[in-house]
Amino acid sequence: MEPLVQPRAEELSELYRELSQHPGLSTACLGPDLTTQYGGKYCSLYTEWSQRDLARAENIKFCRQYLIFHDGASIVYSGPAGTCSEIKDELLSRESPSGMLKAVLRKVPGKEKEKEKQFLEVWDQNRKVKSIDLTALDKHGSVYDDDQFGCLAWSHSETHLLYVAEKKRPKAESFFQSKAPELGTSDEDTGQPKKEDAPVKGEQFVYHEDWGETLSTRSVPVLCVLDIEGNSISVLEGIPEHLSPGQAFWSPEDTGVVFVGWWHVPFRLGLRHCTNRRSALFYVDLTGGRCELLSEDTRAVWSPRLSPDGCRIVYLENNVLGPHQQCSQLRLYDWYTKHTSTVLEAVPRQAWGAFPGIYCGALPGMCWAADSRRILLDTAQRSQQDVFVVDTATGTTTSLTAGGLDFDAILMRPSKGPAGQKPPLVVMPHGGPHSVFTAGWMLYPAALCRAGFAVLLVNYRGSLGFGQDSVTSLPGNVGTQDVHDVQFCVERVLQEEMLDASRVALVGGSHGGFLACHLIGQFPDTYHACVVRNPVVNIASMVTTTDIPDWCLTETGLPYKPDALPDPAQWTEMLHKSPIRYVDRVRTPVLLMLGEDDRRVPPKQGLEYYRALKARGVPTRLLWYPGNNHALAGVEAEADGFMNMVLWLLKHLQC
What we know:
By secondary structure, the protein is of the alpha+beta class. Among the domains are: 23-88; 408-652, Alpha/Beta hydrolase fold, catalytic domain (Rossmann fold, 3-Layer(aba) Sandwich). 17% of the residues lie in helices and 32% in strands. The strands form eight sheets. Strands 29-31-30-32-33-34-35 form a seven-stranded mixed sheet, sandwiched between helices. Helix 3 packs parallel to helix 11 and helix 5 packs across helix 6 (511-522). The longest helix is centred in the last third of the chain and has 18 residues, at 635-652.
């Protein structure tokens, strides 16, 4: 970096330190209504938050509890109950239906060379009443704590806990492994010598498919039930072998378990942020092990919720394959009539209408109201969160926020700057359906504004928030429609706002990085600096290495079939729509940030671009982050990325 930039490094690090201390809400759980001795009603609101700790280089989790007094129609008073406290080593937690018990899945570091252990704890209002070493019981592998498969569900009777874990895999050893002497251990229950499972020879290097980005340790999930009183664990049987179960909960009257089952044949594709994978809603009976299909088996199903009265299940459903985050239908299954109906269509035919369609992240914020009639949906719409209330009886919706254009952009201006000087502009295209809205990526625009930059956030057609017609307009038009939408916004803003057109930069990740690389190649005179995080650079070379090969073909406008290889014309079309096609025209200095463990857009994409730019003499710098995947959400990577990004912009925009 040039010396003139260095004096600002300390100032910028303090700015990031200040902004990074703001916590983000991760979980909220409303407890049951209680009545005071004077007849007033109140309930507790338990919340969990995540906050960066730069000194420890980790995200810490803490809880905060609130008391809410109400009269049944409105809140009389609400406020915090005590101070915050850090939650250490908790993976999952869930209060029982009565609110009298709480289940906690906890990790415990192993001593010396021992592996990390997992314990399932049960707490009452005064103490820990159960602590079960799941690792020692050895009924299954690690318990899933992700929001894609994972769950921790109390039975309605509060006697059993349901969760998802990796299926126990037989031990494997070499063909040439020498036998160890028999150990003198015994089974505590029978007093007989303990017999270890016989290892399978020659299996230690067998490849086991996983579910891709952020789910690389998930292969074969199984549903597990803990009998709290009996301290026994059972792995549920009866689930077809071609299905991977998850997002499970107890059926009414605790007769069985309802779950989402994903087909994993002929092979597993990346599942994170891909709501278009073939799946359906199932019910498995606990007594006979019978597995029953509750929804269509040719669609994609996710995020089921049981109504408080235990009569109906609401879930989201959409097409298999196609765009990864298309609009979903809100579907309703009546448990006692066995009838399925559509509560809300995915999107009206008009451009917007009353409701643009349901968009969510990996899982939506969706819950039933206490009356078992209304549903609250908190969805990722446009450039902010939109909240909708859906009446299941009438199918009507009420939006708690307003808006709607074919696509939009938001301009954030710095509050202050050098007198008489126009601020530089940083353009940030949306990252598409795989853009993880991490706290860091949401922090960056605010921090850039505080550092003196104007920031233009662009949500192009085909991204998120404007209905199914908008989503389906992009496949076949990537590299043109989305690029021209961003460029149109940039040119319009430069014409209408007091900004320095000689100091314009691009910052983008994932599909946003794809667009940034396209823009500096297609419009080299507009942009003077560029920062990209895990960008898609060459669709043709990405298709054989990513966990979402279907995206590469679908967005190019080509059909995807698991058993078909692209022909030469299709390879050419993928290359034709890629930013690498324009690399000979690039003059803009480029900073690349790559996650070593990225399964979605493998880092070789960025390396390919880096080498192409270096060979052509374009100023280029590459940052390589071990232990980070597509989101680059590690505390160190996020903070280092911010500092390098701003210093790169300051240097090449001559600020």
